[in-house]
Amino acid sequence: MSALNPPKRRPAGASRGTATVLPPEYESLVSCLEEAGATLLSLPTTGFSTSLKTSALPILREATEGYGWSSAEVRPPMPSASRISRMDRVFGYLALIPQDRYVLRRIVGCRALVHPVTGRHLFSWRRLGELLRADHKAVQRWHGEGVRTIILELRRVAADEHGARSACLNDATLACIARSDDTPSLDRADQRR
């Protein structure tokens, strides 16, 4: 390709050999899944533990603080209640993938995990391919197939609830998917911080 005609980038899930048609809601659903994954990972992991922490001893704690051995950890802010309920709803969409296709469910769920501070995926396509002992391009196709399955099931549920008039997911009940931009929006409680 020349500099005037750069090659067009195919979305994840599209392959060279077969023409994969992605639904128009594909990018919106992927961004909602990523927002839900970032919300899940930003929840605090503190609580009671059965393991003994060696730094709980006063002598060790004083030594680490005195010599500056403690590293500052950047923690994401606590997500608001609306983001947590959106996360619950969006992760409930994974159950729309049939039980016999659990590999698609795992791929979509793993790919949804995005670090809340850096915005990077915890599982790259190649890492998922290594874990599943498959080619990373096949994992991308399977991810697209899993997301497409969720969208088709959501369309079917929306059509059952609202009649034949809702062929698309632009319904108010599916507001998370029908956002006009692809970036996850912050709710008012997050914008005040």
Helix-strand blueprint:
Layout: H1 26-42, H2 58-66, H3 81-92, H4 102-112, H5 125-132, H6 136-162, H7 188-191
Helix pairs in contact: 1-3, 1-4, 4-6, 5-6
Short description:
By secondary structure, this protein is an all-alpha fold. The protein has helices spanning 26-42, 58-66, 81-92, 102-112, 125-132, 136-162, 188-191.
3D architecture notes:
It is a single chain. With 193 residues, the protein is mostly helical. It has a domain at 26-43 and 78-181. The protein is 46% helix and 0% strand. Helix 1 crosses helix 3, helix 4 (102-112) packs across helix 6 and helix 5 (125-132) crosses helix 6 (136-162). 22% of the residues are buried.
SSE arrangement, N to C: HHHHHHH
Helix amount: 40-55%
Total DSSP helices: 7
Summing up helix and strand content along with how strands pair, one would put the structural category as mainly alpha
Approximately what portion of the residues adopt beta-strand conformation?
under 5%
User: Which stretches are poorly predicted, pLDDT < 50 over at least 5 residues?
Assistant: 1-9, 177-193
**Gross morphology:** globular
User: Termini distance?
Assistant: 47 Å
Taking all Cα atoms into account, the compactness measure Rg is 21 Å
What kind of sheet is the major sheet?
none
Number of distinct beta strands: 0
Q: Which whole number gives the mean pLDDT?
A: 76
